[in-house]
Design brief:
The chain is of the alpha+beta class and about 450 residues long. The protein has helices at about 5-25, 30-40, 45-60, 65-75, 80-95, 95-110, 115-125, 130-145, 150-160, 165-170, 175-190, 205-215, 225-240, 280-295, 315-320, and strands at about 195-200, 220, 245-250, 265-270, 295-300, 305-315, 325, 330, 340-345, 350-355, 360-365, 375-380, 385-400, 400-405, 420-430, 435-440, 445-450. The chain has 15 helices and 17 strands. The chain starts with a helix and ends in a 5-residue tail after the last strand. It binds S-adenosylmethionine. S-adenosylmethionine (SAM) binds near residues 204, 271, 272 and 285.
Amino acid sequence: MTTENSEQVLAQARKSLSEAMRFHAEGKLDDAEEHYLQVLDHRYRVEDVLPLVAGVAALRGRFEVAIIYWDQLLAMKPDHLVGLLEKGTIQLKSGDARGAVESLQTALRVSPDNPTALNNLAVALVQADRQHEALEAFRKLATSQPENVLAQHQIRRLTSRMVPFWHIPMLNDARRNDAFEAAIAKAVQERGSTAPVLDIGAGSGLLSMMAARAGATNVVTCEAVPIIAQTASRIVAQNGFGNTINVVNKVSTELTVGLDLETRADILVSEILSSDLLAEDVLNTFEDAHARLLNEGATIIPRSATAVGCLVESEVLSRYAFVGDVSGFDVSAFAPLAANRLPIHGTMTDWKRLSADIELQTIDLTRPKHREEIRVIEIPVTANGTAAGIVQWMKINLADGIEFANHPDDYSDGGWLQVLHPFAKPVAVKAGSMFRVVAGHDRSSLILMAAPLAS
Ligand SMILES: C[S@@+](CC[C@H](N)C(=O)[O-])C[C@H]1O[C@@H](n2cnc3c(N)ncnc32)[C@H](O)[C@@H]1O
């Protein structure tokens, strides 16, 4: 190309650039993009123009094209911070959370602690369902920007998603804690202080600390949820048991003897009973522990748990369980979509007993294996009324002579709630008759329903 020619090209490129910028300023984005592309055709100020054309394409909603422009820039300048940030943000907007995470992590390698990169990375990690890493990113952001209330809010929001609300009332449940401590202390005394203790489901580390306080010198506890495990480690160390208790951030089924535990344990302590007994996967967890993690004849705390309940009538609870006419419309077809169990506060909810307490289902946790169970139980009715369902609670046997129950007459706002198992529809019952319920479990949930009437 002659000098004259190249000067003409340069002049043309400059003209296109100035027109592109005018269109851009006027909001004529399609014209602006077209003219920026003409500038790029001349290979004129490529590194300055690519960000502009990428920005215009993104404003026009042409995310894929915008990413192509950013990629062209990043191929030339892999550490281009704006390029990485913008590419990540566009990927986030267009639903490519994984791609966004990658771009924003690279941006953070270029500029550690960059608040935009940290914030957008945290959002992308939430979208990619990587909640714990998202929490770490928001925490880092909040450390560098203590005034950032949105980051504080996200930390609490994510934490609340990972840590069920009942941890705190459970920890404040002195009756529960004392019953476990009595059983743990008894086991440590009987087995000796060097007997290996396994605590499945550390939570705050409370039960492990009870074992250590009773003299146990070899305690391993596992916790599936990373943020809970980290917190347990901190609490255990703060209380001076850092050398006695080893907190492992694993689900118990992934523990390995020889790696996480030196040997199989002689004492198992584990409080993973849900209000309706089985929902925290206690049967699979204990079966696995018996098979792989415990010595034969190990002391098991708790030894068993029994679902106890009674037939109830309650206007309040019926309003949660059944629906018929509403504002003059028949919406009864919605009734079968009602929850099959409702947590309730026994001492606070207004309900009337229609039967004595009856044992509905026991799980013997010292047994190595469990099968689904189902049977019909006859409940003697003690008062006339309309049964909404069965209110159920738990009786836990922790050791010889050590029991705990969250009976609804005298227990509220502790670690467990009582549970209403509503029937499919209200059932009229008469004092002196027998009410038949189907009771049992499918290994992960309690089954309780009104038995079909014999024809
Ligand atoms: C009901 S809390 C009890 C916490 C503590 N042991 C206490 O009694 O205060 C149960 C804890 O166990 C954890 N968890 C449940 N099943 C687990 C398992 N199989 N392996 C490890 N952690 C488990 C839960 O994440 C939760 O933090």
